[in-house]
Amino acid sequence: MSGDEIWKGLSAYLEARREIEGGLFIDDDTLETLKTVPAERYLSFESLEEFERRISGCRKCSLHKTRTNFVFGAGDPHTGLVFVGEAPGQEEDLQGKPFVGRSGKLLDEVLASFGCSRKEFFICNILKCRPPENRKPLPDEITLCEPYLWQQLELIKPKLIVSLGGVAANVMLKTNIAVYKLRQQVYNFRGMPLLVTYHPSWVIRNLPKNRPVFVDDMKKILDYYLSLI
């Protein structure tokens, strides 16, 4: 559901409350404004930093019981390119930052080979807390945590989103198609273009054979991004 749909639903709910029980009274002019002004106009009053402070104590699912740190994401809040992975790993949980383990170091190396730094972009995950033993995210965890990603993207408004790995791609595209079939195609995610590539951990599991494929994907991703800015 888009921000506009959520906002219109809220305005309809408030109108119903006004008509049925006289509660939460809103005058007609304000109600009409709620129906027509995009939700993004209101979201813009909250910065990414403020949003992080607001949700960092999240206890919506059981992962808060086992986490060391809530891993919101990191990078340039004004970037045009956002990388989205699956979930924090052990090192990410300890440091409270995304992609700081072996996978993150490989991503840094590949970006550096093209003259880029992760500081130029924003990196986050579908889940903000580490699943125990790095298991795959459970459906209910995704359902509860995914709206945080939506709001991050609403606030950043990137020109391009890059899904790292099958879990992130399948969650965002609502599919079960393998990464190798999703690569090198542009998709639409909530009005923003999205590209899919392998997770750096996939590359690490079978070095050096997998690295050239990942490097080629990243080159095409960065070239496409440059064509958008």
Using the alpha-carbon principal axes, give the shape.
globular
Number of helices: 11
CATH level-two architecture of the largest domain: 3-Layer(aba) Sandwich
The fraction of residues in strands falls at: 5-15%
Q: Give the % helix.
A: 40-55%
CATH class of the largest domain: Alpha Beta
Distance between the termini: 27 Å
Fourth-level CATH superfamily of the largest domain:
Uracil-DNA glycosylase-like domain
User: What low-confidence regions span 5 or more consecutive residues with pLDDT below 50?
Assistant: 19-24, 40-44
Give the tally of β-strands: 6
Number of domains: 2
CATH topology of the largest domain: Uracil-DNA Glycosylase, subunit E
Mean pLDDT: 89
> What kind of sheet is the major sheet?
6 strands, mixed
* Order of adjacent strands in the largest pleated sheet: 1-3-2-4-6-5
H-E string: HHHHEEHHEHEHHEEHH
Secondary structural class: alpha/beta
Radius of gyration: 19 Å
Task: Walk me through the structure.
With 229 residues, this protein is of the alpha/beta class. It has two domains: 3-42; 50-228, 3-Layer(aba) Sandwich (Uracil-DNA Glycosylase, subunit E). Helices cover 49% and strands 11% of the residues. The chain is built from eleven helices and six strands. The chain has helices spanning 3-21, 28-36, 39-43, 48-55, 90-95, 102-113, 139-156, 166-173, 179-182, 200-205, 211-228; strands at residues 74-75, 81-85, 122-125, 160-164, 187-189, 192-197. A six-stranded mixed beta sheet has the order 1-3-2-4-6-5, with helices on both faces. Helix 1 (3-21) runs antiparallel to helix 2 (28-36). The longest helix is centred in the first third of the chain and has 19 residues, at 3-21. The radius of gyration is 19 Å and the shape is globular. 31% of the residues are buried. Mean pLDDT is 89; it is low at 19-24 and 40-44.
